[in-house]
Amino acid sequence: MTTGFAIRQRQWCVARLGYFPSSLCLVASLLSSEALPAQAQAPQQPGGGPAPGTQASKGAPDLFEPPPVKPTQNEISVSGDYLFGQGTVTFPELFSLQNSGRGSSPDVGIAERKSDYIGTTISYSFGQAWYLDLSYARGHSSATGPIRFPNLIGAPPLDLATTFTINDDWYQAYVRYTFPALRFTRLSAYLRAGVSFVQADLRATNTGPESPDGFYKQTDRTEDILGNVGFGLVYFVYRSNRAKLGLQLEGEGFYGHRSQDSREDLDTVDPSRIVNARIDNDLYGGLGRSTVRFEYALGRRGVFKLTADAGMEVKYTRIQYSDFGIGTRDELLWGPYAKIGLKYSF
Fold first, then answer.
1. Cα–Cα dist 332/315, whole Å
2. pLDDT in tens, 178-211
3. 14-33 pLDDT, tens per residue?
4. 88-110 pLDDT, tens per residue?
């Protein structure tokens, strides 16, 4: 369609508007249809800018296309967890008294325990693929069990009912890898590896009628250095724009070295005559955790996320006393587990 023909067509339509008001729609459509070809066919002078009233096609913003959403690269999270556990704990007996010339062959006892663990974790990630996790946990345990004490007059050994208290501190650092390809799917997974340093203080006192304050006392200072390797899987059975609900399974194996400084005192023996016992062990085991996981995005952009886990945890440990010809002893800890956290992506 030429420019002259378009002008004559507009003049003809305008002259008849008084008779046919409905032709306003036709005029509007003609004007809009001619404006676009005119802009498209406007000649471009060599070396000049775009024609007046037009925009350069390159770099011109599209008013009808929403701006792209920039994915977040960083993530910081903080969480707190709690374990109410029960199970068994082992302890050395008569090692220090044997070193002091006051006991027979040493052994390893076992006691029933109840434990509370409270911990916190701080995590950071750049790229949301590799993460650094730093954790601290504080545990308190109470236990009861017998200590087989030799009878000094040659009679059968005495089983002294003994109460124990254990306070342990856990310092852990992990490198964790998540799989970015699973980020927006129902399945999420991670692998992680790290180190743990554990300090524990054990105090034991017999509760028999021999002495109101206890005839036998033990103090034991323990330090563990462990290497850890673990994994995690979560499958979200429900997803919406803000909320997710899934089933989670986590597992971890560990191996390391333990050093113990054990001291045993008797009311009838001068404390200056007691010699501490140094005990070195290798230990290994595993931890399993099965939980229900809930996530909820906060705010308009959802950069804050609230997370919550609840379920069960089981930990199994084997401790070797091979240097003393005693063999290996087992410890078990299990109970309900809960965790709550907050994530921020930016």
1. 6
2. 998 888 899 999 999 999 999 999 999 987 665 5
3. 555 444 444 444 444 444 44
4. 999 998 899 888 887 678 889 99
Return phi, psi of residue 278, to 5°. Answer: -100, 120
Q: Which two tokens stand for residue 31?
A: 């004007």
196 Cβ contact partners less than 8 Å away, ≥ 6 residues apart: 170, 171, 172, 224, 225, 226, 227, 228, 254, 256
Look at residues 218, 293, 217 and name the one whose alpha carbon lies nearest to residue 249. Answer: 293
This prediction's pTM = 0.76
Q: State how far Cα 9 lies from the chain centre.
A: 74
Q: Are 215 and 163 in contact (CB under 8 A)?
A: no
In the block, residue with structure tokens 């379920």: 311
Mean of pLDDT values over 138-150? 89
